[in-house]
Amino acid sequence: MSKKNVKPGVEVFLSGDLSRLKGRNIALVSNYSATDSSLVPTIELLNNKPDLNISTLLAPEHGLWGKFQAGENVPLQKDKRTGLPVLSLYDQSNPESIKLPDNTDERMRTFDISDAGKKINKLALKDIDTIILDLQDVGTRIYTYISTMGYLMESISGTEKELIILDRSNPITGSYIEGPMLEYPEYSSFVGFYSIPVRHGMTIGELALLFNREIYSSNVNLSIISVENWERKMWFDQTGLQWVKPSPNLPSLTSAIVYPGMVFLEGTNVSEGRGTTNPFEVFGAPWMEGMTVSEELNRKNLKGVKFTEIFFRPSFSKYSGEDCSGVKIFITDRNEFSPFETMLNIISVIKKTSPDNLIIHTKYFDMIAGNSWISQKINNGLAVNSIVGSYQDGLSEFSEYRKKYLLYD
Fold first, then answer.
1. Nearest to 28 by CA among 139, 135, 144, 168
2. What pLDDT, in 10s, does the model give residues 299-319?
3. Domain residues of the chain, as ranges?
4. Tell me, which fold does domain 253-371 have in CATH?
5. pLDDT digits over 330-381, tens only?
6. Rounded CA gap, 225 and 388, in Å?
7. What is the CA radius of gyration of the chain?
8. What CATH number labels 9-240?
9. Omega of the bond prior to 185 within 30 degrees of 0, cis?
10. Is residue 317 a contact partner of residue 108, using CB atoms and an 8 Å limit?
11. What burial class does residue 83 get, using C-beta atoms within 10 Å of its C-beta: 0-12 exposed, 13-18 middle, 19+ buried?
């Protein structure tokens, strides 16, 4: 497929009639990765528009300009570039927040399954008439921007405040869905907001429509500004737009493609490559035998992927400063590659080759899986094919159920 001139929602929005928003007090939820096709951030585009009164910026995880790693506090502050006040939607210093451990990875696992410090106080929005949200989602349930959107919708549900979503394409296409459905509300958390599969195949605007009807009974005053010229089968590199990493550890489209599976290694004592130049594309540990694991995985002939041995030394996160024996993932056919199924095979092989070393942090793993039975099946040594087969009915139902919320062909 040749590249197309895809226009993100912000460009469509700014080319339209903004007169109805004149005089309204606006809060903007965005960050550095939401840009127009000329790489100008939405934050600057909207703040420089005379007809728009942007009075407040709301910062998601990683902050406005992406300097905070996963799990790091995003403080209340004043933005130096715009001079606007910044209210944090990921603030660990919130007085209601839980006491956090010092270890970065443990802190992330602890803090991210709670909603403490992530729901904005309704009083903070009392003078706000309109909230505009422009965030680049990456196509998986385990990504906090869609949870931030869901919490905001909760805070304005039943009010006259309007939420305008400036939609963006799903970078890993809107054609594929994969993985188990989240069991709602038992496993709802900041790392899994609602009952959708691991890889949901929807845009953030389409998810807003789904959340509004299914959770909030259409009580959110919601508007979606659609992407122009995007087709569901398109990968991000077919849009004609430049990749701006949506969070610090997704530096490339490839990292986003493997992420719906490799993110589950966060729930284990295996490094998922944080602190390297290829996060989520490599995995390993000081106690792992990378060559043995890569050979075992290649013998499985998984579709669209190959594996090679690699050695790495993370600069932060798990095993910081330690030499790790590991594996590098190479995607050979992204249309055939199944990230979640690949992850199940990876954990299965590590469990087989290092049974005394592998640890699954069940509480966190279950929250990102959206259920407890995936980890139980893994621990019981159930065949991967059997695990994959156990969530197919849920995917079939979701495939039909989501159709009424899809905005693109």
1. 135
2. 999 999 999 999 999 999 999
3. 9-240, 253-371
4. Aspartate Aminotransferase, domain 1 (3.90.1150)
5. 999 999 999 999 999 999 999 999 999 999 999 999 999 999 999 999 999 9
6. 36
7. 21
8. 3.40.50.12170
9. yes
10. no
11. exposed
